[in-house]
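Supplementary Methods. Inverse-folding protocol.

Structures were first reduced to a discrete structure-token string of length 317. This string, shown here, constituted the complete conditioning input.
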């Protein structure tokens, strides 16, 4: 009998059903789990499901019963994967489930920022229209997306999904070669060239030691003043203080951020503290959140458990 524990079930809306895996099991779900509660809740677990609860080496070393970690997400930066490899603890994740949801979120942010929709809404709230006394008014630039260039960092399922949508709306697509790479693969453009040529840059690579603060002062300075930065990858890919400074100095035109260095984020976070800026769109890590994506993810959670115990593991990391 497997003892399956889902540590943060409330990260998935209640109307999404997680199918019961076809393996003899007991299932325990917790809405959320504090770091101090993890070990106690997993003491008898053989399978742990975590979306964002951190499983570090210190915690994992206290859980000898564990046979499998199922990350209920694509990004697995909350799990000490090196420790798991060294200790032969299998970890699997969810793949290719949000290939509509995340790209659509990115393109929605892009249109909104390029057309300054939030800025116009704020101006109407602030009664600017009455002052202008015309049927329309132009207080912010409105750009076309068609004919512009998007730079995509990360060419996996989501980077490719964004490229498909971007091409369909007339954008030129540049995939960035890895930062610091001495060679440039066919089909890729050097990292710095992408930053300096793109009208919009979007991030779809994992958060690792290599990608932490991938976009900071120097990278923002390379971008065009009319450029837009979108991050629906992971908080930590962007230096948030540097981004706010770049927006304030007009080094870039706008930013759409779905992910934050700390989640939940509060007013101590530079992005949240500047949420009133008209050229900054913030969403609370929901790019993945269309109902169809959530259901695909929930199905894969169950499939991953079932496949593992059938001896044909899926999506092992
Ligand atoms: N905001 C949201 O709701 C969601 C965010 N994500 C994030 O998006 C990331 C990407 O997801 P997928 O495309 O499905 O993953 P994927 O594994 O299909 O693709 C990731 C790509 O990034 C590339 N990569 C790795 N290191 C890189 C580096 N240093 N520079 C450039 N590229 C690098 C890999 O080679 C791979 O092509 C996830 O790791 C996760 O952190 C994923 C789903 C939802
Ligand atoms: O799948 C992911 O990586 C997400 O961030 C959604 O939880």
């Amino acid at each position: 009998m497997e003892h399956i524990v889902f540590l943060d079930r409330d990260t998935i809306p209640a109307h999404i059903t997680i199918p019961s895996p076809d393996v003899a099991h007991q299932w325990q779900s917790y809405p959320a789990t504090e770091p101090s509660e993890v070990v106690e809740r997993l003491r008898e677990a053989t399978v742990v499901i975590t979306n964002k609860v951190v499983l570090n080496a210190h915690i994992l070393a206290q859980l000898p019963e564990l046979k499998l970690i199922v990350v209920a997400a694509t990004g697995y930066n909350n799990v000490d994967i090196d420790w798991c490899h060294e200790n032969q603890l299998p970890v699997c994740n969810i793949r290719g489930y949000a290939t509509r949801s995340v790209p659509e979120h990115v393109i929605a942010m892009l249109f909104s920022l390029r057309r300054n929709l939030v800025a116009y809404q704020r101006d109407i709230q602030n009664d600017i229209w009455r002052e202008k006394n015309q049927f329309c008014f132009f207080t912010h630039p409105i750009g076309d997306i068609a004919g512009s260039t998007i730079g995509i960092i990360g060419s996996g399922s989501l980077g490719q999904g964004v490229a498909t949508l971007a091409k369909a709306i007339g954008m030129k697509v540049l995939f960035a070669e890895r930062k610091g790479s001495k060679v440039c693969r066919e089909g890729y453009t050097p990292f710095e060239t992408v930053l300096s040529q793109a009208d919009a840059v979007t991030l779809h690579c994992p958060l690792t030691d290599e990608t932490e603060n991938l976009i900071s002062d120097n990278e923002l300075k390379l971008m065009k003043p009319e450029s837009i930065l979108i991050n629906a990858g992971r908080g930590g890919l962007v230096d948030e203080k540097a981004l706010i400074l770049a927006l304030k100095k007009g080094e870039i035109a706008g930013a759409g951020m779905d992910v934050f260095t700390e989640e939940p984020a509060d007013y101590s976070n530079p992005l949240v503290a500047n949420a009133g800026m008209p050229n900054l769109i913030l969403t609370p890590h929901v790019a993945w959140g269309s109902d169809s994506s959530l259901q695909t993810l929930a199905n894969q959670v169950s499939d991953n458990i079932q496949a593992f115990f059938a001896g044909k593991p899926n999506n092992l990391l």
